[in-house]
């Protein structure tokens, strides 16, 4: 049975992952941590602890007192916020990851650390982006992600720490809002479709980005963490995605259910420039071959589930 510590547990991925892990391993086995405390299911359904991941001693103590054998390190600034606060992004994204790796080393924990499609850059092949390819990102977040991928590989090769990770695309969900990302527009579009019937996209039409629905992201984390280590050639930073979409494609999918939905554009130059430096569609064959990755939700199936969940919440 696992004993898991999750950092950044009140974020978009953390709150849904914590629930699923508590279903699988029991409420008390999963310690959720975050720098803030909100009264959500992630804090109320099992143990919760305030944790600033840049404090290495506090990180170690939290993991040791919980008798953690698994660390899921999600605390990070996302791409758009990182671009406006690059020093803070370096301190939090790199400092937090180093503390997670050092704690995993001291306690012999398995470690999951997410990477992102942001780890690619403008010179990377845009379509069918291979698992192993040129990575020269032009954003602070992307630089953090490449450095993080390399650090996780380093701790595996040098210290034998069982580090694993995924390069997440934009993640779409209805439970907790994303914050500070470039792909957040997709979530905003669904929320506004239900609330007001219209949305102004800050990302331009024709800008294709990889996306995945949260249930597929959660199952991917669990599947990778449980995967037979002898099959893993890459370990960290597996490309995963379920679809490549632009704002128009999402709008078309929404209009199958809400025919009057209106989409217009008010481009944000910062987030558009970030998106322009990312791939259109990445290749997931390494994840398929090494741990049987598969995504259940395509665009329309995701749209149907998002809309019915959001209508159920009476926004
Ligand atoms: C972001 O937009 O910053 C994130 C990501 C793709 O890593 N969703």
What would the keywords be for this entry?
6-stranded parallel beta sheet, NAD(P)_epim/dehydratase, NAD-dependent epimerase/dehydratase family protein, 315 residues, 16 strands, binds 2-amino-3-ketobutyric acid, Epimerase_deHydtase, NAD(P)-bd_dom_sf, alpha/beta
Describe this protein's structure.
The chain has 315 residues and is an alpha/beta fold. The chain is built from twelve helices and 16 strands. The protein has helices at 12-25, 41-44, 56-66, 79-84, 86-107, 140-159, 184-195, 214-226, 247-255, 269-276, 285-291, 299-312; strands spanning 4-7, 30-34, 48-50, 70-73, 110-112, 115-116, 127-129, 163-164, 166-168, 170-172, 198-201, 209-213, 238-239, 243-245, 262-265, 281-282. The protein has a six-stranded parallel beta sheet, sandwiched between helices. A three-stranded parallel beta sheet has the order 6-9-13. It has a three-stranded mixed beta sheet with strand order 10-12-14. Helix 7 (184-195) packs across helix 12 (299-312). The radius of gyration is 19 Å and the shape is globular. It starts with a strand and ends with a helix. 2-amino-3-ketobutyric acid is lined by residues 78-79, 116-118, 168, 170, 181-183.
Task: Present the secondary structure layout.
Layout lengths: L3 E4 L4 H14 L4 E5 L6 H4 L3 E3 L5 H11 L3 E4 L5 H6 L1 H22 L2 E3 L2 E2 L10 E3 L10 H20 L3 E2 L1 E3 L1 E3 L11 H12 L2 E4 L7 E5 H13 L11 E2 L3 E3 L1 H9 L6 E4 L3 H8 L4 E2 L2 H7 L7 H14 L3
Parallel strand pairs: 1-2, 1-4, 2-3, 4-5, 5-8, 6-9, 7-16, 9-13, 10-12, 11-15
Antiparallel strand pairs: 12-14
The chain binds 2-amino-3-ketobutyric acid.
């Amino acid at each position: 049975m696992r004993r898991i510590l999750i950092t950044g547990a009140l974020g978009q991925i953390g709150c849904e992952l914590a629930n699923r892990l508590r279903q699988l391993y029991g409420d008390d086995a999963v310690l959720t941590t975050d720098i803030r405390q909100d009264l959500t299911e992630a804090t109320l359904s099992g143990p919760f602890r305030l944790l600033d991941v840049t404090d290495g001693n506090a990180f170690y103590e939290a993991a040791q007192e919980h008798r953690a054998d698994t660390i899921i390190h999600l605390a990070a600034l996302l791409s758009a916020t990182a671009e406006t606060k690059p020093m803070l992004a370096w301190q939090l994204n790199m400092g937090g990851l180093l503390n997670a790796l050092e704690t995993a080393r001291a306690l012999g924990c398995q470690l999951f650390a997410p990477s992102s499609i942001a780890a690619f850059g403008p010179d990377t092949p845009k379509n069918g982006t291979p698992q192993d390819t040129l990575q020269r990102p032009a954003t602070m977040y992307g630089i953090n992600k490449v450095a993080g991928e390399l650090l996780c590989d380093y701790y595996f090769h040098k210290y034998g720490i069982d580090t694993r990770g995924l390069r997440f695309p934009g993640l779409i969900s209805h439970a907790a809002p994303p914050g500070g990302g470039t792909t957040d527009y997709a979530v905003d579009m669904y929320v506004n479709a239900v609330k007001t019937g219209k949305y102004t996209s800050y990302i331009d039409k024709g800008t294709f980005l990889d996306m995945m629905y949260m249930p597929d992201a959660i199952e991917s984390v669990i599947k990778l963490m449980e995967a037979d280590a002898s099959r893993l050639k890459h370990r960290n930073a597996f490309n995963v995605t379920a679809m490549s979409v632009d704002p128009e494609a999402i709008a078309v999918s929404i209009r199958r259910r809400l025919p009057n939905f209106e989409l217009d554009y008010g481009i944000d130059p910062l987030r558009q420039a970030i998106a322009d430096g990312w791939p259109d569609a990445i290749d997931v064959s390494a994840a398929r071959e090494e741990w049987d990755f598969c995504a259940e939700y395509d665009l329309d199936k995701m749209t149907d589930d998002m809309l019915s969940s959001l209508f159920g919440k009476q926004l």
